[in-house]
Amino acid sequence: MALRDKPNDYFAWYNDDDRLAIVARQTNTTESKGVVSGEYDTFSDSTVADGIKMTIHSKYETATALTDDLQTTCGLNEMMHVHVLEYVKSRILEDMGDSDKASFFKRKYDSGVMKKPTRKSGVRVLLVPEL
Amino acid sequence: MTVKNIIEQIETLYGRKPHEYVKQLINDALLDIAAKKQHYTVSAKTDLASGQRWYDLPARTIDVIKVEILDTSSTTPRYNLIPKLADPHKLLKSDTDDSGTGDLT
Predict the structure, then answer these.
(1) SS (HEC) of chain B
(2) How close, in Å, is residue A105 to chain B by CA atoms?
């Protein structure tokens, strides 16, 4: 069986803060240095172009131009745009020395961001079975 | 809503502000929302290289959701989900490979 046949039987991953590690189970004890069959080691076979695909939670893309759209360029859901405006107002008023109004917009921003259920994956409600 | 829309609204309320300053505040807001909500999901691909254990994560990564490996054995190659090692230090025992050469000593 080739090593990449049913790769979920052979490969595994872990990560540290900046890097992703890919390891593969060793199936041939003669080719690896003292590796007992079934242990994980670094993958060693022919290189595969685009062989690893990772899905990540990412920071939004940075806005650089005036024409950048917060949804299409930066990836921010349209429902959240109003909160960006609240955040900007809060910071500007803070810099202008109006801390009361700044706190007002900061509170609006904080509660608005925490309330919006914008993630489309995952269960948001608890389903209680009828007894 | 574009960056220009936000700048226009801000300038209507508070007068003229340097565009770079407002842009920086918008990016600060995006970072703050990303830290609180974590709902922006993207995929990235890279080559699976022989003898290489460590691959750099994209610079904008907050956390890794899933990793898939390309199964090239079938006629139509497809990505298969692979498991995460819950306790790699225990499972990999004395394997201290930090260079990508993959030695178990």
Answers:
(1) CEHHHHHHHHHHHHCCCCHHHHHHHHHHHHHHHHHHHCCCEEEEEEEECCCCCEEECCCCEEEEEEEEEEECCCCCCEEEEECECCCHHHHCCCCCCCCCCCCCC
(2) 13
Is B78 near chain A, with CB under 8 Å? no
Q: Where are the domains of chain B?
A: 3-37
Q: Which of B6, B36, B104 sits opposite A84 (nearest CB)?
A: B6
Cβ-Cβ contacts under 8 Å for A19 (sequence gap 6 or more): B54, B55, B56, B57
Half-sphere exposure of A68 (CA within 13 A, CB side): 18
Whether the pLDDT of residue B102 is over 60: the answer is no
Among candidates B33, B40, B95 on the partner chain, residue whose Cβ is nearest the Cβ of A57: B40
CA distances from A80 to A30, A71, B3, B57, B65 (A): 57, 9, 14, 27, 22
- Alpha-carbon distance of B8 to B13, in angstroms, equals 9
Assess B103–A contact: CB distance below 8 Å, yes or no: yes
| pLDDT, tens only, B63-98 | 899 999 998 877 788 898 999 988 776 666 555 555
DSSP summary character for residue A48: E
pLDDT digits 0-9 by tens, A56-107: 989 999 999 999 999 999 999 888 999 999 999 999 999 999 999 999 999 9
Write down the pTM of the prediction: 0.73
